[in-house]
Amino acid sequence: MPETERRREPRLRALKAGRAVLAGGRSTFDCMVRNLSPIGAKVVFESTADIPPRFSLRFQDGTAHDCAVKWRTQREMGVEFVEAKTG
Q: Is 7 domain-assigned?
C-alpha cells in the first residue's frame, strides 16, 4: 500500500538548479531541486551541514523563495516556502 501523503500540496518531480542564499547574501550554496510544489520543495546539497534553518532559495530564472527547513539529512532537506511579512 502506498505511503500516505502528509504534505498539504503534492509535490511534482523536478530537476532544477538552484542556490541557497544565506542571510546577508554573503554565503551561497549550489543545490538541485528534486521536487517542487507551490508551498515547498525537496532540495539536494553536497552537504546540508552549513545550511541554517532559514534561507532564500533562488532559481536560475531569477525567482526566489524564503524557506524554512522542515526536515534534513546529510545531503537532502525538505523546505517550506514562507512569505516575507510586510508592515
A: no
